[in-house]
Amino acid sequence: MTDSLSSSRAIVKYNQHRFTETTDKIVIEFPLTIYINNEEFATMVCSPQHFEEMVIGFLASEGVIHFKKEIKEMTLDEDRALPMYNCILKK
Question: For 30-89, which CATH class?
Answer without folding.
Answer: alpha beta
